[in-house]
Amino acid sequence: MMWQSIQKDLSEKIGENAYSLWISPLTGETVDGKTLRLTGPDSFFCGCVKEKYLAAIKQCLSQSGAVSWDVQFAQSTKPFPKETAQEVQMRLPTMPVVRQFTKTLNPRYTFDEFMVGNSNMLAHSACSAIAEDRVDLGNIIYVNGGTGLGKSHLTHAVAHQIVNEQPQTRLHYLTAQQLTAEMVKEIKSNTMNNFKRKYQHQCDVLLIEDVHTLSGRVKTQSELAETLDVLMESGKRIILTSSKAPRDIQDLDEGLRSRLTYGLITTINPPGLDTRLRIIQRKALNKDLHLAPEIAEYLAENVKGDIRKLESIVVSLKAQAALFKVNPDLSMVKETLQAVIGQHRQMSAEMIRDFIAGQFQLTLNELQSKSRKRIVAFPRQVCMYLARKHTELPLSEIGKAVNRDHSTVVHAVRKITEQIARDGSTRGQIELLSDKLEKKFL
User: Do 84 and 25 contact (CB within 8 A), yes or no?
Assistant: First the structure.
């Protein structure tokens, strides 16, 4: 048969090791006198052979006189011998031997389960593009956001999709702490070449979380910078996540900081009311928990920030509903809120106004006055901006707190937004005030 006649030529052409791994497990048969059908253990195996050795197989066919022959691949319908199955685990000499990251992925963290809103739309689109190997938003994404806002959900979703749809992709998913621990282990065993080979030459997609924890870790920063250089030059896909923007990470080498800002930087903000409502409804559905519309709305209005709090509350309500065999009512929800997140205070425009007055050492009368001096006008605009950001109040209610109308609120929000975009000092000041406000009242 034609297959037997070209196997020896293939062995000489690709080498004995590659032949034993990839070619030996195949069986071949001639179809219609013009087609060579090769059958392998599974679709993954056949895909790898097609990608790596189809050209060599066709060349050997041509040398044997079968110039116009076609080559087809098929998955075996019969179980392969145990020995062969063990060999198949060594599919790619250039791949890590064990893909342990699959054990760390949360099965619920998929794109289907991710609730998209204005607060995370860009991050979701960018990560979807990375998962689909599209370059419209670039190959490098830096996702910045607070705890529990969905950074890990997106990175897990990317890994899930790539593993399921692009199984030949060499993907590494880990935290910055794990990267540091692995590097230290390789240094101690004097095998840093293994570390470099794995992350620089055996990697198509690199997902690293909590980059901010590299602060002060000089050696890890140096190795990561070198790895990013290699991967960037070869067009590999990279997603980095952190609770801080690159500019805000202390004790970070400027070379690495520059590389972190090379691609798209996107921020996940706390979800708005509509997004929180959809998150609650989805989590309740997943837990088979019936929540009346007014109960779901009450939760969405009173639980902000960390999405994990929402999940914890839904789990608690599910447990109580199952125990007492009743659907959650408002009383149960209020008790659960206090148990999970403590005494809850809903932020108001007046709270924010008084807080800002104290921060800028102004009296309430000064903040509500008609003065247009910058020392008064700027804090007043900041007050309206933060009230718009941290509450769901109508513009008229926000304006009333500082003795202004809704059009003035619109102007103030636009003015502060523009200053944040062009002035790093203003941006830092607003972020600091926003953090203090959340710690004080939420």
Answer: yes
